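Recap quiz, item 2
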Amino acid sequence: MKKLSWILFSLLAIVAIALTACGPKAEEPAQPAATEAPAQPAATEAPAQPAAGGKQVEVFSWWTGGGEAAGLEAMIKVFKAKYPDIEFINAAVAGGAGTNARAVLASRLQAGDPPDSWQGHAGQELIGTYVAGNQIQPLNDLYESEGWLEVMPETLIPLISDNGNIYSVPVNIHRANVLWYNPKILADNNIAVPTTIDEWLAAMETLKGAGVQPLALGEQWTKMHLLETVLLGTLGPDAYNGLWTGTTDWGSPEVKVALDNYAKILTYANSDSASLSWQDAAQLVVNGDAAFNVMGDWAEGYFRELGKTPETDYGWAPVPGSVGVFQFLSDSFVLAVGAPDPEAAVAWLKIAGSKEGQEAFNPVKGSICARTDCDKALFGVYLQSAMDDWASNIVVGSLTHGVVANDSWKSEIDTALGLFIQNGDVDAFQSALVAACKASGPCK
Amino acid sequence: MSKLLKDKDRFLSIVLITPSILAVLIFIYGFIGWSVRVSLSKWKGLNPDYSWNGLANYINLFYDPRFAVDVRNTVIFTGVFVIGTVLLGFFLAVMLDQGLKGEGFFRSLFLFPMAISYIVTGVVWRWLMNPATGSRTSGLNLLFSYLHLDFLQNAWHTTPKWGMAAIALAAIWQMSGYTMALYLAGLRAIPIELREAAQIDGANEFQIYRHIMIPLLAPVTLSALIILGHMSLKVFDLIVAVAGKQLPLDVPAIYMWQTTFDGLFYGRGAAISILLLISVAVLIIPYIWYTLHTETEQ
């Protein structure tokens, strides 16, 4: 009797272990069902997650904190008011600049379980990864039916397109080529805001002589951010764009000049840059510890958080050499191939591209609308000036923030830059950049 | 009857152990095999691409200047971390073995850092090892300046070339308590008669340690070296917590992460992870073999 119960118990244990071991396997059949869903959208999805009316849209992002999360909430509110019968599933994954979220997304896509729509930096980061992987759909029809082509800058469209197909809906716009400066330090040292790289170098030399820290710089990605603005400032918008389309030779003497400029500028930076976040570095300027900092205009939101006043505690200008050029980056949303509910996904994209949706999101996030017709009164003094520039300047894309280069290319540039920071060898840096363009970019 | 029972027992034990063996086969060895396959492929981008690439991924790593930085950093980290931890751990164990008052308290005190995750250690040491200068000086550098020990101030992990050694300091802080516990147990296992005999023969304290204690502790030292060595080869979280993902403090694990998930070079990432696995295996397998061997002999 005792033996029997022992055997029964063991069998039970075996079954239990076997079940746990097979757990992940047992769930798999559910996933192919989700991929096939577009054929008969609502029907297959409904039994898995019962929801009122059955229509739902799952939107994947990395907006989990601060102004970003609040802005997303505001936009969801607009969505719910317009489409009360569609349930909104906010599938946000925490993690700085989306590195964790993108790893999660990659595994979901590889498992054939895409969300309806997800966030990505507009441009090649999306195109190089997801268009090449046949994961997102072109949105030209949506752009035409919603009239977005008329309200977004003409020079923006090619940067978010591939072979004439537009692949994402930009919700917000940030500017990358902003030079933040401390007005008091510049006034004390009789320095005018520099507009060319040479003026900038001269200004920093003067400041160095006066015992002021000329440039505040942070960890490695902020150095890549500086690099892209110096490339733009030295080469000008056309040649800069050519770097990414293959018409400007990375091995050319012009690029060498840009890299030499970059190397010179680095010599004016703080010695502890590797240990500073972008906030730490930007803060040095408003606290009067450094004169200049190059950072995207999200820094302005941070300065306000610190209780600083625009134009007295901090000033801004385009990075020297890039006056009249708006180097942008943008968070945008895409339409998944095999979206479980494509209709609901399109409804979400319509909100994301609408004046109402963008006016709800951007003032809270501290960015400007991708549309040029947003109400200026909703924005602060810096953002108003950015809106003017957005509507009138030449638009070029940012490298660090995913517009101009695909992920593989960008990561190779990042490695080349890291080695350069370590060994200071400009020639090796340039040949590594040439090699990176050949291996992962359009260069032959 | 007893044979039947024995067979039944054997059958039962095989049945009971099968699920976990299967799980290990699939989730460990299966995936190792899959990683090897990926490392021999041209897979780059989001979609799997198993087209044959031979050993190209491995060969390219040999010429990759970043991988050279990684290897160099790993060697520095392993050297400083393992030697520092073993020496400090041994020193602490010898001190505690002197029969001082409150030994239990100190033992826990030194062991506690091990209970903390590398991420927490990393964040704390990031503050301590702040390399800022001038009016923004803080952390240990500020402490040194209060103590008028300004010559000790340094750039810590941002020191060119040798920054990795500073990261190893944090790891030493975390793991020396663990080696202390290993050594303490080893010391306590040495019969007191040996020490007494040596004393009668006229050996001084130093000679006792040099000729009796340390040789008898050799198995403990070997275990410590192996455990610490394989940990340091795999280090990832500590570095990311202290310095983020920056090239001067790059190690193979960080390169693998970045190139695979940020750069979508799956083939290259798999090759790095296989090289990591091999380097750990070179350390571990002879040790396991040796331990099993000596155990069966006993």
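Chain B has one domain: 67-297.
The radius of gyration of chain B is 24 Å.
End of item.
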